[in-house]
Amino acid sequence: MGGMTRFHNTMGGKVEDFVPIEPGRVKLYTCGPTVYDYPHIGNWRAYVFEDLLKRFLLFRGFKVAHVMNITDVDDKTIRGAQAKGVGLDEYTKPFIEAFGRDRDTLAVLPADHYPRATAHIPEMVALVRMLLEKGFAYKKEGSVYFAIDKYPAYGRLSKINLEDRRPGARGDADEYEKESVHDFALWKAAKPREPFWETEIGPGRPGWHVECSAMSAKYLGTTFDIHCGGVDNIFPHHENEIAQSEAANGVQLAHYWLHCHHLVVDGEKMSKSKGNFYTLADILAKGYEPSEVRYLLLSTHYRRMLNFTFEALDQARTARQRMGNFLGELKDVAGPAGQTASVEPLIQAARAGFVAGLEDDLNIAEALAAVFTLIKNANPLLVRGEISKDGAAKLAAFFKEIDAVLAIKPSPAIAASGKIGAAGDPEKRLEAEVQARIEARQKARVEKDFARADAIRRELLDMGIVLEDTKDGVRWKKAGPPKP
Ligand code: AMP
Ligand code: ZN
Questions:
Q1: Which candidate in 35, 150, 400, 423 could, as Cys together with 95 as Cys, close a disulfide (CB 3.0–4.6 Å)?
Q2: Residue of 30, 43, 265 to mutate, ligand 1, most atoms within 8 A of C-beta
């Protein structure tokens, strides 16, 4: 044990030893939610992968400074707010709140900072001005564009074919395909009915990419250790972040780029039109536990595609319950019936396997296999009454230790009742279930699926819960006693 941690670096495309800039400290930037809708479980795959990375670094004794942006102004948020006829703030608020709620439900550690784009316009303007001054950007009809021809290093991260580049061609959209490598908007001129800021570079609003460049520099410095996101972020988002930041600052933006592969549902891209679009609330409303969802999201290696199915979720439930059952049996150990076996070698082997797996580019399958091998080897000893009370306590302590990384709380209560959740407190559990259904209903209404929204209201009624729609949102209360 005590080897070197290695990560696959998208920049360069191979697994490399991880050496932080400052010994013992890691500066981590992860691209956060674009708050134009409720986060879906694909987003949570990315955030749970990043949480596994962060928790493992903490477990290995690093101090981690973690920043995650909130994109609360971009093409999508503006379009959504316009369609609803409300301001940006009002539009994004429920999605930001849902993000925080889901994060806590999934035991994802909060970042140190969640900078919001709308609160950092001066920083973005300063960056754009620097790019203009250094000749990497130009103005056109009130907007400012990054001139990719002026930046020959463009394309290293995504290994894009620069032959396809169209010099002089410009694009205003935040998102575009690899096929159209072109000058991209740093600053977008104010348009009628769009929010804008009066600034030194004219009235307008930032492009999406410049937000991350400005905010990462503010909170982590111009060079930091690790930058994460899903593979869809590689091009154009991260490519453009690198171009902006490195052209402006003259130093490398991030030393390691880690990207998780996508989550798909039943082998297909998740989309509203296909009806395979799930939020966390949708899944909890079907009776699954947050820790089961977390287990599923983290148990596939981050660089492999994760195919979400309810069958896979049931398997995650079973795996987690196996740990819970084992812990439950440890609790029941009364004391040595005769000869006791030493559990130390089993624990040491499990710890070594767990750490070696995660050190190897977060090989979670190997890490979990080490844990299940421990259970498999300790079980016969348990059955024969060869584990002392002290041995049982040591085994339980080991599970607590690794749960600092996994955060799946394999509690014995699960095994006993087949149900867990808000730690056995029925009131809390009810609250969580009601909240999940209310969110699912809100989502159905946003999607104008009123039949579904009504069905959820009726389900809640069956549970004895009455909803009240007020102007401050949805309230709920328990129905009074049935009329005689
Ligand atoms: P967005 O809110 O679309 O900006 O995405 C937030 C994060 O979720 C980014 O890191 C994305 O790469 C990631 N993401 C989006 N969709 C998926 C998906 N289906 N699977 C995994 N990660 C995703
Ligand atoms: Zn970003």
A1: 35
A2: 43
324 lines ligand 1 (CB under 6 A): no
Residue nearest to atom 14 of ligand 1 (CA): 43
Q: Which distant-in-sequence residues (6+ apart) come within 8 Å of 301 by Cβ? A: 362, 363, 364, 365
The DSSP line for 152-170 is TTTTTTTT--GGG--TT-E
In short, whether 42's Cβ falls inside 6 Å of ligand 1 is: yes
* Contacts with 67 (C-beta within 8 Å, 6 or more apart), sequence order: 28, 29, 30, 111, 112, 113, 114, 115, 215, 216, 219, 220
Instruction: Single out the residue of 124, 110, 26 nearest to residue 71, CA to CA.
Output: 124
CA 161/CA 135 separation, integer angstroms: 24
Q: What would the DSSP string read from start to end of 174-207?
A: S---TT---EEEEEEE--TTS--B--TT-SEEE-
For the cut 80, the answer to whether the pLDDT of residue 215 exceeds it is yes
- Side chain identity at 300, as an amino acid letter? T
The bound ligand whose nearest atom lies closest to the alpha carbon of 67 is: 2
Tokens 């708050």 belong to 35
Residue 412: pLDDT band with limits 50, 70, 90: low
Q: Whose CA is nearest to atom 8 of ligand 1?
A: 43
With residue 132 as reference, give the H or E element that holds it: helix 121-133
246-305 pLDDT, tens digit each? 999 999 999 999 999 999 999 998 887 888 899 999 999 999 999 999 999 999 999 999
Predicted confidence (pLDDT) per residue in 105-162, tens digit: 999 999 999 999 999 999 999 999 999 999 999 999 999 999 999 999 999 999 987 7
H helix intervals, 268-363: 280-284, 290-299, 310-331, 344-359
User: pLDDT above 90 covers what percent of the chain?
Assistant: 75
In tens, the pLDDT along 321-332 reads 999 999 999 988
How far is it, in rounded angstroms, from Cα 212 to Cα 203? 20
Identify the residue whose tokens are 């592969």: 261
pLDDT at 463 over 90: no
